[in-house]
From TrEMBL:
SUPFAM superfamilies: RmlC-like cupins. Catalyzes the isomerization of 5-dehydro-4-deoxy-D-glucuronate to 3-deoxy-D-glycero-2,5-hexodiulosonate. This is 4-deoxy-L-threo-5-hexosulose-uronate ketol-isomerase. Its cofactor is Zn(2+). It is an enzyme of class 5 (isomerase).
Amino acid sequence: MDQRYATNPTEIPGLTTQGLRDKFLVEDLFVPGEARTVYTHHDRIVLGGVLPAGEPVALPNPDELRAEYFLQRREVGIVNVGSTGTVTADGETYELPNCAVLYIGSGTRDVSFSGEGAAFYLFSAPAHTSYPTVLTLPGEGNTLELGDQVTSNRRSLEQVVHANGVQSCQVVMGVTRLHDGSMWNTMPAHTHDRRTECYLYFDLDADARVLHLCGEPTETRHLVVADRQAIISPSWSVHSGVGTSSYAFVWAMAGENQDFTDMDAVPPTEIR
Ligand SMILES: O=C[C@H](O)[C@@H](O)CC(=O)C(=O)O
Ligand SMILES: [Zn+2]
């Protein structure tokens, strides 16, 4: 499993473009027939991508976890960003159409993924207890309409795993989709020093990119992100982006609290 050790903000000014990408961009999560995982030491989140081919693909148990099985001390939120597929968890099979979210609680031993064309994105965090496994179909979460056409940031944000929705130990998760003609997400930008957040950008044209802003609010950099690539945003970093075409993204957080509104907005005039 790819290990990404935690980064201190004082390291940012010395990084090259490639150095920045090596720390915060996850480029190759989706490989046909494989389950790929990346362990970030920021809040000990594991990101994963599963692209089943002909055969079902099992959730691996990477040696770095030193666990009997992946979910022994962890929970996971799964979003299907591809075509319909199925996830089997301890003998129960769930059908996930595009953008369905499956939360699986800790203690679940056997998890496997099937369906050619399905693309399962995984966000996992340590869990102190077991919450029930819940499937949420697209539209069943709590949808917030944000932004404005005038500022090119009209978007629908669906909260699925959150304080008033599907229960979890740490994971807070949902999907945001930009409306046609809107390109900016999460502007004004924000930080939340109590949680790490990751974005998986998807439904981006093959030749389009998102310019994702990261870094401390007064020392920002950018990552150029392609379809089905993920970014890791440490607690001290802003996370906002502008696309060269329309797109959607899975956002997911873990850390000290699950309070979605616990964020410190950064006015555009203060960003450097
Ligand atoms: O802390 C919350 C996260 O950054 C996202 O939910 C923001 C987002 O999806 C958006 O503004 O479109
Ligand atoms: Zn955020």
